């Protein structure tokens, strides 16, 4: 150890020059960093869910779209509103990556020719708007509200809200930057139409993707400097030394700059989770640096010269800081088993950062201290027996006096709060990733309130034979399913398929809104409809080329993913009872099935972190009996904070799922510092009381200060409009505070019981 520190001091100038130079050179790569907000980032290339979705798109085209919604309280059927719809419809047709546009004006209206009752016409519902009189508009309104194909789809029942839907091309979802390009054009169109006085709402894939990106970029640009500023202020309050502030902050800046630069070099794009790495690294790096600087100051105040204080600091901190960095890395690395790609990337990158932060801390801070030779006033205040402070002695006496009360109170609190676990729900609904005041979330609420369900299930029904979708029995079964599905689940608001087209033709020709029994008649209806449609409005997105598979789109309300999974299971089971089969597809289904991945991430990452860190503790203390003592103060905060979530009605989402392993990884740091210092005190021959006082003096206060900084850093995320970050920050901050209290109260109380039974149990 002494040789290592001597080398640090000898090569101090090289270290403090080379590390910043390496950082500056690598940071040049950050100008090439890119942000990806696409839905595809949540799934690996080998994901069966993604492969199934891609197969769906190859058959039916894209289910994704750009949606523009607006409302006229006096009714949409006036010339101003219709002109807005018409202009936006035309503009969307001319927009890159948009394959089809559906709106009130270009709705393909099927009706009889007024001059020839045997002639069926299919044309745009509204044309030559300026030529329409008030009576004409009212007539159009009455017709529209009888059209099942558009009511509760592109126009509300009260005819006051409408939406224009631009269906995206299949390649739009796979093209990086497509959403940004689409939104650039859409925002330009909206700006041009704002003179109408309408408030426009936007939804659809491009809106979600750009919202993910904008919120992620906002968070990293806002919270990273904010957390650095908060940390600097707190470090100044703690140390009252500008050197302590700058050295600590420089370590974390070096660390996250290098890690992000390497991520960019290796081709990884930032996303809403990995964009938070700087804040995580700030929290990790500050913890190690604070412990080092704290012990250094204590040494200088005790009268040690600069080099002696550096030796004392490294001797006391090298092992515990290495172990805490290792366990923190294990906590983050355990996220690497997740099937959710952003979580996996975040976990592995931050695990590497934890190790890098340790290396930079051990190298840079002692080298810088050797150069700075900070002036510290030697403390003349008398201390208690064996050099231990008065506060530390009072703390030890308090624990010994109240150990039974502490254990009992913890048990009662645990039982009460843990009961909240019974109220927990898992939810991975992508809409709820955003706060209510985010524009996209507002649009979803407007659509659900005034039009239809803003989510959708793409149900692919297999008729089992070529041309099978034209079979009357098959179509009647589809119609029966739609009715039973909506009756069973009120959250199913609207269904749409070629069945509606056939029923419409039969209504126009035979005055009977039902499926005809004649297979040939059904085929004629579909052929006539297909031939009459303008270019771009074809029906090939509703069936496959063999006319065996039928696509039925169900518009759904926003619900918990548990409810989504229940409805999806019901759909597929319903069709198993028929001669046909069905498979639910689409992005809603994809995110619903992420629920299992969320649960697996939470459970498996915590279990992995527990196993690995338990093995580490066994190798350190060489006693199996130490493992329960080590695990209790670290598992308890996770259970308690999740129990609190159950009581408060906060669902487990992706943000909470990643918090478990991270809480464990970081909270273990305090336990390690506590136990290592306790073992060190016992080796010095201290009794139990003085050992606790020694722990408080040389680790306890630093634990309090680091937890204060860490919890402040994480609670900042509560300000995020991205709910995964907001929930993660809140849960992690609360858990770290609970973990500190458990380490400083319950852990020593349990230690006292073990110590009374076997005074050599930790030796």
TrEMBL record:
Q: Fetch the SUPFAM superfamilies from UniProt.
A: Multidrug efflux transporter AcrB transmembrane domain (SSF82866)
Q: Which UniProt keywords apply?
A: Cell membrane, Membrane, Transmembrane, Transmembrane helix
Transmembrane residue ranges: 12-30, 222-239, 246-266, 278-297, 318-337, 349-372, 406-424, 602-621, 628-650, 656-676, 697-717, 729-751
Q: Does the keyword Transferase apply?
A: no
Family matches, as InterPro entries: Acrflvin-R (IPR001036), MMPL_dom (IPR004869), Mycobact_MmpL (IPR050545), SSD (IPR000731)
PROSITE patterns recorded for this chain?
Answer: SSD (PS50156)
Q: Where in the cell is it found?
A: Cell membrane
A cellular component term (GO) from this record? plasma membrane
Question: Can you name one GO molecular function term for this protein?
Answer: transmembrane transporter activity
Membrane as a keyword? yes
Q: Identify its membrane topology class.
A: Multi-pass membrane protein
Pfam families named among the record's database cross-references? MMPL
Q: Where is the SSD domain?
A: 242-371, 631-753
Instruction: Tell me the protein's name.
Output: RND efflux transporter
Record organism = Sulfurimonas autotrophica (strain ATCC BAA-671 / DSM 16294 / JCM 11897 / OK10)
Q: What is the lineage of its organism?
A: Bacteria, Pseudomonadati, Campylobacterota, Epsilonproteobacteria, Campylobacterales
